[in-house]
């Protein structure tokens, strides 16, 4: 036996195609010249591909098992052009298609590609983010042509097999390289890998199967949405070629700054001014919330910059039940001017309390 292909791939003789594929993938990644710079890796990589190309083909494997050699099976059994992969275009998936796709050199039809995803950036207010809201938007996109149902043909009878690739979507090319004769498969230039040829194109879309449209959509903004919240609308992106699936639409939310509140997660922060008399004696003040004004009790002796928590007055949790809090920071407001009577009262207070620093020192 000239070469032991089973030994090269490190598999037993009763190995299945899936096991060959797995072994090849592991070894190919290990010895690929772009990944392994050690001397001899290129030759090893070439040997691995040769082994996989023989053992993955039922006819060639049977011949090899019977006669112990790959001679007499024709040229190009290495499966692809080794020189091409040195340019960085190496794709294990493509090589697997060539080795394991059946029918000689790959799958008979091109992979259906779904349409592209779209992104829409939407601005909402803090109130809208907190309560949730329904918005209506218009999205320009490509859609599947209604006249031909995305086929691109005037009628079904106008869709035939591509004459250049016989419906395979791929064409084999053999090339001589310093390593010998190597074969590769490329996308058919006539049908662009679809395996089909259109005789008469649809007039509504000029044979593309796609048309431009502006789609109106209703977007439900959930309560508790925050900056960067990403809403996915499945199938509302660009239509795919030849009636294949559409991409998705991603609506990215941006919450506008508020004139009164600052948001930190699910909590709100607000600053309010209170008279120094309320801070000293205690009392009740009105505080703005997202649902209107609310009463806040201020205890006597409250200091400047004290923060009070109003439970459940913040933002609803986006994921789960519950609501954040509103944190109220009080700014004690000291009058800039005093009447004679007010001044006399404060002087009496200072005198009675025997404070050297005065009432302002007491408050701050």
Assembly state here?
Answer: single chain
Helix fraction by DSSP (H/I, runs of at least 4): 25-40%
Taking the alpha carbons of the first and last residues, their distance comes to: 96 Å
Domain unit count: 4
What Rg do the Cα atoms give?
37 Å
Largest sheet: 4 strands, mixed
Give the topology string: H per helix, E per strand: HHHHHHEHEEEEEEEEEEHEEEEHH
CATH-defined topology of the largest domain = HSP40/DNAj peptide-binding domain
Would you count the extended β strands for me? Answer: 15
Low-confidence stretches: 74-94, 96-111
Helical region count? Answer: 10
Major sheet: order of its strands?
10-11-15-14
In the CATH hierarchy, the architecture of the largest domain is: Sandwich
The rough form would be described as elongated
What amount of the residues lies in strands? Answer: 25-35%
CATH top level of the largest domain is Mainly Beta
Helix and strand content put the structural class at alpha+beta
- Look at the structure and name the CATH superfamily of the largest domain: Urease metallochaperone UreE, N-terminal domain
Report on this model:
The protein is α+β, with helices and mostly antiparallel strands. The chain folds into 4 domains: 5-100, Orthogonal Bundle (Helix Hairpins); 111-155 and 203-255, HSP40/DNAj peptide-binding domain (Sandwich); 257-333, Urease metallochaperone UreE, N-terminal domain (HSP40/DNAj peptide-binding domain, Sandwich); 337-364, no CATH class. It has 10 helices and 15 strands. A 4-stranded mixed β-sheet has the order 10-11-15-14. Strands 1-9-8 form a 3-stranded mixed β-sheet. The longest helix is centred in the first third of the chain and has 15 residues, at 17-31.
